Amino acid sequence: MNKPFIYIANWKLNVSYAQAQEFLTIQDNLVHTNKQIIVCPTFPLLPIMQQQLAEQIQLGAQNCSNFTKGSYTGEVDAQTLNAVGCAYCIVGHSERRTLFGETDEMITQKVALLIKNNITPIVCVGEQHKSTTVQTQEYLAQQLNKLNLDSYKQNSLIIAYEPSWAIGGGKLPDITDITTIIEWLQNYCADNQLIHTKIVYGGSVDEGNIVALKQIASLDGVIIGSASADFQKLINIVSL
Ligand code: PEP
Predict the structure, then answer these.
(1) Which of 40, 114, 149, 215 could form a disulfide with 60 if both were Cys (CB 3.0 to 4.6 A apart)?
(2) 95 CA to centre of ligand 1 in angstroms
(3) Domain range for 170
(4) Annotated catalytic, 138?
């Protein structure tokens, strides 16, 4: 059987407690053979989701602290995320980098803590502005080289290519450009012996472009942001 295509629903701050409960009533529509679904709600929703999620759907967090303990008001540590059932955690999302000042050093620390706590990091990288392919590759190499991913040759990782300019705005890059970058990322992983790393794409994924994205042979999956908060859209995307 082919490897399952991965769909990561990044709910951001778009799904309320009541909506998450509604999701639990329709979640069975997302379960398909050979498709892997990961849902990433806000922190307070994690325990209720963990208790009621279908066995075939996995739980992810949208962020974690780069600290383990201490006077860090508002932070949530990786060990607690593991305890409430998170198998995955997004780190380095462009919204965290630009709106909350997350640095490569912090992301490096977060990746290390997640791995230590048996959580697969979903590491987001991507250029800020529309650039040439070569510029994008240089930018991604710089971002990735700072994250010490070399240390995780034996671990599962997901690298999410998310061009910041394509997030939330309905501006999907050309499929040929996405293909070139995904292939480049696969080569980067091969060169660095990151043999358990998967590559996903995120940025304006919707019902209109998922079929074209799935044609990219080297792509392991997608992150769906805004569209994942509309459950009918999410069901449609996953079923296409
Ligand atoms: C995201 O923020 O991870 C994302 C993919 O967003 P959107 O689908 O809304 O562009």
Answers:
(1) 40
(2) 10
(3) 5-239
(4) no
Per the annotation, the verdict on 75 as an active-site residue is: no
CATH code assigned at 11: 3.20.20.70
Residue ID of nearest Cα to ligand 1 atom 7: 225
Residues 228 and 12: beta-carbon distance below 8 Å: no
Protein residue with least CA distance to atom 8, ligand 1: 225
Spell out where 82-204 has E strands. Answer: 88-91, 120-125, 157-161, 197-202
The residue contributing the CA closest to ligand 1 atom 1 is 225
Query: Which position among 95, 102, 127, 162 bears the catalytic label?
Result: 162
Give the residue from 107, 66, 61 showing the smallest Cα distance to 82: 61
d(CA 155, CA 122): 12
Residue 166 has pLDDT above 80, yes or no: yes
Helices (H) and strands (E) in the chain, counts: 9, 8
Please count the structural domains in the chain. Answer: 1
Contact yes or no for 69/77 (Cβ under 8 A): yes
Place of tokens 């997030």: 167
Pairing mode, strands 157-161 and 120-125:
parallel
* Binding site membership of 228 for ligand 1 (Cβ less than 6 Å): no
- At 72-128, the pLDDT tens digits run 999 999 999 999 999 999 999 999 999 999 999 999 999 999 999 999 999 999 999
Strands (E), 21-119: 35-40, 57-61, 88-91
For residues 176 and 166, give the distance between their C-alpha atoms in angstroms, rounded to a whole number: 15
User: Does 202 sit in the ligand 1 pocket, CB within 6 Å?
Assistant: yes
Q: Which of 93, 95, 102, 127 is catalytic?
A: 93
Confidence of residue 202 (pLDDT cuts 50, 70, 90): very high
